[in-house]
Each structure stands twice: as structure tokens, then as C-alpha cells.
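Give me C-alpha cells for this 531-residue protein.
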Amino acid sequence: MKQEIKARTSARIQSTKRSLFQRIARILTHRLFFDVLFMLVQIVVLAVMILAFSQYFTYFYGICILLTVLAVIAIIAKPSHPDYKIAWIVPIMALPVFGGLLYLLFGGVRLSKRTRKRMERLTELQQETMGDGEKVLAALPEGEESVKVQSRYIARASLFPPHLDTQTWYYPTGEALYARMLMELEQAEHSIFLEYFIIHPGVMWDGILEILERKAAQGVDVRVLYDDIGCLFTLPKHYAKTLREKGIACKVFNPFRPVISLRLNNRDHRKICVIDGHTAFTGGVNLADEYINEIERFGHWKDGGICLRGAAVWNLTTMFLSTWNVDELEVEDFEQYRPNVYLPDPVPSDGLVQPFMDSPLDDEEVSATVFINLISRANRYIYLTTPYLIIDHSMNEALCAAAKAGVDVRIITPHIPDKRRVFELTRAHYEPLVKAGVKVYEYLPGFIHSKTLVCDDEYGVVGTINLDYRSLYLHFECGVWLSGAHSVADIKRDFLETQAQSDQVTLEEVQGQSWAKRFYRSLLRVFAPLL
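Here you go.
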């Protein structure tokens, strides 16, 4: 008996050792290990150089102070968000020797001259092909002035016009959206465009990849674009090459470079799937198993998305092609992918449908303005779901003013966090909202990742936009603005069903926190734009 116990114990120890060695091996062979190692080498070399020239410290100190002053002036002069400016000025002034250098390395958006020219050319092409949507707005009945004003802003600010002749289907779970995606992908005959922040091999991606491989072999134009930072821990370094070997065209957005001056701020957070130019999907769902609850990470994963068919798909197609063509010498002909090329019969109109894009490379805060417009114009209610509630003064004031005016304002956030620090920052924004009459709920079964808005049974927004600084001001995002579409009622129904599984946050709860917790959350709010 003792021998058996010893044998089982020994086997468990050996198994634990093997598991530990396997984890260590995965860390040591991961692409990030070598990238971080290379960056550490650069930091050590920089430190050695500083020490070697220590006799010139006075000059070095003077140059650093000058850089700090110039950095602060540059931050104040930039047309960026005030909260983002404060979040940078505080650490710069706290570290006057290295603060300016820190901002030059990691702050702001820096594009090469070549990339700027390419994007300007693509913007001109977009303006030529998209139109302003005025004919569509002119077809609306009298008394729809509020609709026209909001739609016209989106068209002029983001360059993506409104459309009729479009059908919409809202899906309240990642599982339902995935099932419809598989069905539509199977029917693809000409082109498949995928643009995602995260791709992770597993049940979901493997099911899609199997279809992509078959379609590519049949001559379908299959393209995949993924964000390098989003897939840093989910895909191997040369995965794009693997897909190309399968006949799938693939590009990596903003590849991670292991240099001290790396740019990590501006990521492609969009989720876009376009099939044959006439059917498209977007929403919160990435291509990984947690989004369809094949694996559990933070309780039940609540997500959602929307499917479009018809004229409005052209907006999402153009978004994808514009990003795809940024590094091409010759811009391809977008016209061949218009919805009516392979869908000759007009689709019945289902209200006004306007997919739009938000880019950090201009000075226009499209997503934030779309949300504030809807909040400010709401008459009866406005319901929002978001995984992160890290809002600025303007958004906070709009929500509080609406609640004080008698509008029924409700927000659902997660109860189980995916990032503890960000979760605390979300909760740090509860008190002023709840005090003003905004009803805040936390989704008890797990993590809510859907990004939706519904207002007055008239308007809806479904997309990739979180209510946080990165999503609203730093990332490439997309959303679908709806007016009068039947999907608006579906979004509202989903919200109310989700609310029934949520717990309302009370003023006593948010004010009953310890002073240490309240101080910690206040500190997080100062640096919120950088988190």
C-alpha cells in the first residue's frame, strides 16, 4: 500500500515538474520573450551610455529639462482630449529628467511621411466613392430633422453616408452570431474579407479557417487582416505566412517592433466580416472561443453583434479595403466590390443604416460625439451596455444631465472583470452617475463584452466601441448607427433581458467604500487615458 502511495506521489511530482518545464519552455520560446529581452538590452545600453558620460550630467540634465518643457508645450498645444493631456503632464512634471523623453518615445501618434500621403490618397478615394448621403436623407419624410442632423454629422465627420435598401439582424450572443457567420461564409462565391482585433485558434477560429481554406482553393478572394498586439499572445509570430501558404491573403496591422520607441497606442480594434460585398458582420465578437462560451474565462461571456445585407455593407467594405491598401503601391479598384455587383436585386429597406469608422489619426472624435448626440437628444430612455465605463467629463455630464431631466438612463457593466485595475476604474465612475439618477447595473453571470446603445425605440448603435478612452480616442473602431430599423427593438429586448440578470448599484454601495479604496480609484482616474 505504501509503495502504491509513493508511486502515485512520485508520478504527481513528475507530472508537476513536466507541466512547470512546459510552461517555462512556452515562455522562453514565445515571440514576446525575445522582444522584451531585446528592449531590455536597449535600456541597459542607454543606462551605460548615461553613466559613461556622467561628467556631463549638467548638460544632460539641462537638455532633459528642455525636452520636458517642450513636451508639455506640445501636449497643451495639441488638439487632443484634455483628460489625455493631464494624464501625460502629471508624470512628465513628476519626472522632469526623463518625462520629456518618455513622452517623445511613447506619447502621441507619429506617422511616416509616406504613410500620411497614402492615407490622404485613400481618404480622397473614399470621398469620391462614398458620396454624402444627401439623396438618402432627402427621401425621408417630413419631421425627421433630428434623424437627418445626426446622420449628416456622421457622414461629414467619418465620411461614411447613410443607406436605405438594407436589412439588419441583431444577434444577442456570440454563439448566435457565429452560427450565422458560418452559414454566410459557406455561401461565399467571390470574396471574403475578415478584419479582427483578436484571432485565437480553437473551436471558433478552426471552424472559420476550414471554410476559408476551401473557399480560397475554389478561387474565392479570401483576405484576413489582424492586429498584431491583439494577437500577441494568441498567434505565433509568422502566422500570416502560415495563412498565405493556405492560399489566404493575410496582413498584420501595425506590427509590434521590439524597440524603445514602439507605438502601441493605436490598435485596430475593429471586427469586420464582409462576404461577396453584400453581407457583413460587426460587433463585439472576436474570433476566439471565449466569445462563444466554448471556454470559460470570466464567467458567462455576454456579447452581441449585427448582420447587414444590402447597400450599407459598402461602408464596411470600404473600411476594410482602405486599411488593406495603406501599404500598397497601387490602390485597387474598390468598385468591383459594391453590394449590387453580386446582389443585383435591391434589398427591402429596414430604416436608415449607417456604418461608420472612427480613426485616431484625425482630430474628430466621431464615436464620442455620436454617443453624446444620442444621449443629449433622448426624450424617454437611453440604455447602454459596455465592458468598461471609463468616461470623460463631457460624457459624464451628458449622462447626468439626461438623467436629471427625467430621461431613463441605464448602463450595464460586468460583475466579473477581465482586468482588475480597469474594473476598479470602471467602478470609480459610478458615484457621480448614480447620484444624478443614472441606473447602473452589473451583469452577475460574468463578463459583458457587448457594446450597444438603444434610445427611444428609434435609434440604436452596435459596434466595437467601448466607453473608455482607448476606444473613443486612440483605437480604430467601427459601429453601425440605426434609425427606425427593426433591430432597434431587438437591442432593447436584449438589454432588458440582460438587466434581469444584473444587480443594480446603489449610492450606499459606492459611498460605503473604504478611504483607501476611494483614494486608489481617484488615483486611477487621473491616469485613466493611459490605462
